[in-house]
Design a protein that fits this description.
Largest sheet: 9 strands, mixed
CATH topology of the largest domain: Rossmann fold
CATH architecture of the largest domain: 3-Layer(aba) Sandwich
Shape: globular
Radius of gyration: 20 Å
CATH class of the largest domain: Alpha Beta
Strand content: 25-35%
Strand order of the largest sheet: 1-2-14-13-3-6-8-7-12
Number of strands: 14
C-alpha cells in the first residue's frame, strides 16, 4: 500500500481531451492523491473495493453557468434535459459503487432539480434495501420568492455497498427552552442555555458558506467543512480511504485528512485541482499510499 502507480500514463505530453478520458495523475503525496479528468475516467483508473466512503457532489441540473471571481468555473447546462443528465451521471455512480469496499458507503449530494430521478437510478444500482438515509442539509441564504416557498435545503442520498456497512452513531446538541428539573438526566447548561445531546437526526442545520469565512476559496459551489466532517465521521475510521471524483474545491478531501483518513480526489478543472492541492498541503495526512492500477 506504499506505492503509487500512475493511472493511464504514457510517454509525452497528453492533450486535455486525453486527460479527461483517462484520469491523468495530477498530484500524489503520502496520504492523498489527485486525478485530473472526468469522474468516469478517474474512477475507472482505480481498483475495485478499496474505498470506505465516496462523496459525490455533481452538477445539479440547474441550467446555469457557475464562476467564482479569480477561481474555477463550470457549466451545468444539459440540452437533453433530465433524461440526458441522468444518463450521464448513472455510469459514474456505477463506477463509484464498484470502488466501494463491502463496508463502504456512497453519499450523493443534489437538490430539487434532479434528486428524485437520481434516487431511482441509485435504487436500481444498489437495490432499494441498501438505501440508508435521505439527509436534508438545511441552511439560510438570501432570496424571498413571491410564488413558492424559499428553497433552502439540499438532499444527500446515503447508500451502502452491503448490509455490513460501517456506521457510527453520532450525537448532536438539542437546545431546550428551559430546564425541566434537576432530576432530568442528561441536561447540560452553557452560555447558550440548557441542552441535551441526542442521537443525530437526518435533518442537518449547518450554515452555508459566506464570502468572508476563513475556509472560503474561489470555487462557486463550495460546501462547508462542517458538513463533510460530519459525513466522514459517520461512516469511516482513521486510516480509511475517502474518495470524491467531483472534488471541486477539495472540501471532502480536507475533511478526510483532518480526521486522519486518506483521500483520493478527481476533477476535470485544473484550477479546482490547484486550489485543492493547496488546501491539502495545509492539512495533516498520515503516511500511506494507494495502488491505482487501471481495472
Amino acid at each position: 500500500m506504499n506505492e503509487l502507480s500512475r493511472p493511464g500514463s504514457r510517454s509525452g505530453e497528453s492533450s486535455r481531451r486525453d486527460r479527461g478520458r483517462r484520469g491523468e495523475l495530477a498530484a500524489a503525496v503520502d496520504g492523498w492523491l489527485l486525478l485530473e479528468g472526468d469522474a468516469l475516467s478517474c474512477t475507472r483508473a482505480l481498483p475495485s473495493g478499496r474505498f470506505d466512503m465516496i462523496y459525490a457532489d455533481p452538477p445539479f441540473l440547474t441550467g446555469r453557468d457557475f464562476a467564482a471571481a479569480g477561481g474555477a468555473s463550470f457549466s451545468d447546462r444539459w440540452p437533453g434535459g433530465r433524461d440526458a443528465y441522468v444518463a450521464w451521471l448513472t455510469p459514474r455512480l456505477a463506477e463509484m459503487r464498484r470502488l466501494l469496499a463491502p463496508t463502504g458507503s456512497l453519499f450523493v449530494h443534489l437538490d430539487w432539480h434532479a434528486v428524485h430521478a437520481v434516487k431511482l437510478a441509485l435504487d436500481h444500482l444498489f437495490g432499494p434495501q441498501l438505501f440508508i438515509n435521505e439527509i436534508t442539509w438545511a441552511y439560510r441564504t438570501g432570496g424571498a420568492p413571491r410564488r413558492r416557498l424559499a428553497r433552502k435545503h439540499d438532499t444527500i442520498l446515503f447508500y451502502a455497498r452491503t448490509p455490513r456497512y460501517k456506521f457510527h452513531r453520532l450525537r448532536e446538541r438539542s437546545d431546550l427552552a428551559h430546564r425541566y428539573g434537576f432530576a432530568n438526566a442528561g441536561v447540560q447548561v452553557d452560555a447558550r442555555g440548557p441542552y441535551r445531546m441526542t442521537v443525530m437526526r437526518d435533518v442537518w442545520e449547518i450554515p452555508a458558506l459566506r464570502g468572508n469565512m476563513p475556509e472560503r476559496v474561489p470555487f462557486p459551489t463550495q460546501k462547508p467543512l462542517a458538513l463533510l466532517e460530519r459525513i466522514v465521521a459517520l461512516v469511516t475510521d482513521p486510516g480509511d480511504w475517502v474518495g470524491d471524483f467531483f472534488c471541486g474545491s477539495g472540501t471532502t478531501l480536507v475533511a478526510a485528512l483532518r480526521g486522519g483518513r486518506r483521500a483520493v480526489g478527481g476533477d476535470l478543472s485544473r484550477e479546482a485541482l490547484r486550489m485543492t492541492a493547496e488546501r491539502l498541503q495545509k492539512a495533516t495526512a498520515p503516511a500511506a499510499g494507494l495502488h491505482t492500477g487501471a481495472q
